[in-house]
Amino acid sequence: MSGVVNGELENGRVLLTVTYGPDQMAQSGPASRLRREMIAAYDKAAGADTEVRDCIVLMQAQAAGSPFVRGLFDLWEHVRTRKGRLICANYPPEYIDSLLTVGLQELEGFSLATSKEDAVSQLKRPSVKKQRR
C-alpha cells in the first residue's frame, strides 16, 4: 500500500496532503504508485487552468523513506513542466539527509517549509535561482 494523497485547489495553488506511514518507508514497490497518485492529484486539482503552477505538499508522517522521496522528486519534475514551484511542508527533520542525498534541496523550484503557513509565505516571495555547486 502506498500513502494516501488528497489534492485540492486553494488560492490559486495546488495543496496536496500526503499521509505516509512507516510501513511504506522501507518498501520499494509502492514508489511508482505513490508517484502516480501525487501527480494525478496535482493534475486533477490544477485542472486545465494554466495559471495554476505551484504546489504545496503537506506531509502527514513521522518518517520519510525512499518511496516518498522518489515520488516527491517526480512530482517536482512534473510541477516544473508548468514552471511552478514545489514546497514540501512538515518534512520530518531527522530524514532531511535523504533529500540531500538525491539533491532535491539543490533544485530550482524546490524548497522545504516548517508548516503550510510557511510554505504559503515562501510562495508569495519571488523565486530565487539556486546556485549549482
Description:
The protein has 133 residues and is an alpha/beta fold. 39% of the residues lie in helices and 21% in strands. The protein contains 5 helices and 5 strands. The protein has helices at 22-25, 31-46, 66-81, 96-102, 116-124; strands at 4-10, 13-19, 55-60, 86-89, 110-113. Strands 1-2-3-4-5 form a 5-stranded mixed beta sheet, sandwiched between helices. 38% of the residues are buried.
User: Distance N terminus to C terminus?
Assistant: 37 Å
Residues in β-strands, percent: 15-25%
Number of strands: 5
Low-confidence stretches: none
Q: Categorize the overall geometry.
A: globular
The biggest beta sheet is recorded as: 5 strands, mixed
Q: Give the neighbour order of strands across the main sheet.
A: 1-2-3-4-5
**Mean pLDDT over all positions:** 84
Helix content: 25-40%
SS class? alpha/beta
The number of helical elements comes to 5
Radius of gyration: 14 Å
How are helices and strands ordered from N to C? EEHHEHEHEH
